[in-house]
Amino acid sequence: MNDLTKRAVISSCEYFKECIDQTIDTGIKAGNKMSMNWLSEALNYPNRKKLERDFKRYLNTTYSDYIAKKRLTLACNILCEEKVSIKAVALSCGFSNSATFCNAFKRQFGLAPSVYRVDRYKQRVKQGCDCSKEKRLNSAA
């Protein structure tokens, strides 16, 4: 593969990921059911099977693993930045209930979301940040 071909492949991968991320982020915020059929329609993909193949080809993962990671990453951000309940975090990230969310979070990170929130607060205090916002978060945990 020559340099031009390599750049084209990298560019295609980056463009694919950018389109996927933007569409999924919009879908999560809108509360859409995040199925592969929904995504293929939202992206005007020819069919679901091609989208599944492109997930493997460009992102080296499956759709379900990718969407779970996106939801949990969003949850981490919300847990650290906003004063909301664990249930509210779960629902805003597209989980059907807080139990499902907590189980997925524990599988991914090895601790409960509430413990994660407190640990992040303690970590920021140790780093000497102004944690006036985090103090309010800590009381919500």
Low-confidence stretches: 2-6, 132-141
Summarize the biggest pleated sheet: none
Separation, N- and C-terminal Cα atoms? 52 Å
Taken as a percent bin, the fraction of beta residues is under 5%
The Cα radius of gyration reads 18 Å
Order of helices and strands: HHHHHHHH
What is the SS-derived class? mainly alpha
> What's the shape?
elongated
Write a structural description.
The protein is an all-alpha fold and 141 residues long. The chain has 8 helices and no strands. Helix 7 (113-126) runs antiparallel to helix 8 (132-140). The longest helix has 28 residues, at 3-30. The N and C termini lie far apart (52 Å). The model is unreliable at 2-6 and 132-141 (pLDDT under 50).
What is the secondary structure topology, with strand pairs?
Layout (H helix, E strand, L loop, with lengths): L2 H28 L5 H7 L5 H12 L3 H19 L4 H7 L5 H12 L3 H14 L5 H9 L1
Helix pairs in contact: 5-6, 7-8
How would you summarize this macromolecular structure in one to three sentences?
Helices cover 77% and strands 0% of the residues. The protein has helices at 3-30, 36-42, 48-59, 63-81, 86-92, 98-109, 113-126, 132-140.
Comma- or semicolon-separated keywords:
141 residues; mainly alpha; 8 helices; disordered N terminus; disordered C terminus
